[in-house]
Design a protein that fits this description.
By secondary structure, this protein is an alpha/beta fold. The chain has helices spanning 25-35, 46-51, 77-80, 95-105, 117-126, 148-160, 167-176, 182-187, 190-197, 201-207, and strands spanning 2-5, 14-20, 39-43, 57-61, 87-91, 106-112, 135-139, 217-223, 226-231, 242-243. It is globular. It binds D-malate. Residues 21, 23-25, 62, 65, 75, 92-95 line the site of D-malate (MLT).
C-alpha cells in the first residue's frame, strides 16, 4: 500500500518511510551523497549537530533558511556538491528532523526529492516484495504544516509506484496534475518565496530538476537524535542497521 503523510503529524508506522523535503533538506542530502560524502548525519537540532562536530565532518543546515552560527555551510545543494569532508552533518528546521522521527516508526527510511525521482522509484520497485509493504511518503512540511512542494513530490512518486493507494496518496497524486512542470509547483510554495527573498532562487530552480542524480540515501544507523544516511545507489538494499554511539560514530 502506498500512503502519504501530508504533514509530519500524520507520519505513522510503516515498513518503509520515504522522507521528502524538496526545498531543500532532502535535495541537499541527496546531492551530498552524489558528491561522494560517505554519509549524511541528519540531526534533529542545531545543538545536536554542533555536538557531532569531529574532524572530517562538515556541518550544514539552516534556521530561517540561513546558515546557523558555528556551521560550515548552509542548506544549499550547491554547497553540498563540493566534497569538503567525509561526512555531512545536516540540521534543518523540518527535513532532518523528519528523518530522525521516521527512524522511530520505520525499519527502512529513504530520502527522496526530485533530483533522484527515478532512482528512488527504481529502488522501491527493486526492493523485496513491494506489494506486501506499507510504504509511507512522509512530507516534512513547514513547521508542522503542509508544504505544497513536498505534497507535489509525494504525488510524483506515488503515481509511479504500483500498488493500491490510500486516500491521502490519491490527494497527493491529484495535486501533481494541477501543474504543468515541477518548477511551477515549487515556485507556487511559500518556502520558494522565502528562498527567492533571500536571493536563493537558483536553489529552487535546481531542486525542481528531476532525475538528475542516481544517489538514494537510506538510513544506515540511528543514534540519539541523529540518523546516518548512506548512498545505496539504484538498487542495493542494506541488510542491517548499525547503532551510532554517543559521539555519533558510525559502528562497524
Ligand atoms: C527545512 O528542513 O526546513 C528546509 O530544508 C528549509 C530550508 O531549506 O531552508
Amino acid at each position: 500500500v502506498i500512503d502519504v503523510a501530508l504533514t509530519p503529524a500524520e507520519a505513522s508506522e510503516a515498513d518503509i518511510a520515504v522522507v521528502i523535503d524538496v526545498l531543500r533538506a532532502t535535495s541537499t542530502a541527496t546531492q551530498a551523497l552524489a558528491a561522494g560524502y560517505e554519509s549524511v548525519l541528519c540531526a534533529e537540532s542545531i545543538e545536536r549537530a554542533l555536538a557531532l562536530r569531529r574532524p572530517g565532518r562538515v556541518l550544514a543546515g539552516e534556521r530561517h533558511a540561513i546558515k546557523p552560527d558555528g556551521f560550515d555551510q548552509g542548506n544549499s545543494p550547491f554547497e553540498a556538491a563540493y566534497l569538503r569532508g567525509r561526512h555531512l552533518v545536516l540540521a534543518t528546521t523540518n527535513g532532518s528532523r523528519a528523518a530522525v522521527d521516521a527512524a522511530r516508526n520505520c525499519r527502512r527510511v529513504l530520502l527522496a526529492c526530485l533530483l533522484n525521482l527515478s532512482a528512488i522509484v527504481d529502488t522501491l520497485i527493486a526492493g523485496p516484495d513491494l506489494d506486501a509493504q506499507r510504504v509511507q511518503l512522509v512530507c516534512a512540511g513547514s513547521h508542522g504544516a503542509l508544504a505544497l512542494e513536498d505534497v507535489y513530490v509525494a504525488g510524483r512518486i506515488a503515481e509511479l509506484l504500483p500498488g493500491p493507494r490510500t486516500e491521502a496518496a490519491e490527494v497527493a497524486v491529484s495535486v501533481v496534475h494541477r501543474w504543468r512542470a515541477p518548477l511551477e509547483a515549487l515556485d507556487a510554495s511559500a518556502n520558494a518565496a522565502t528562498l527567492r527573498r533571500l536571493g536563493l532562487t537558483a536553489d529552487v530552480t535546481y531542486c525542481a530538476m528531476e532525475s538528475q542524480l542516481d544517489a538514494v540515501g537510506e538510513m544506515r544507523a540511528v543514534g540519539d537524535g541523529v540518523v546516518a544516511v548512506c548512498n545505496i545507489g539504484r538498487s542495493a538494499t542494506l541488510k542491517r542497521l548499525a547503532v551510532l554511539d554517543s559521539r555519533g560514530t558510525l559502528g562497524a
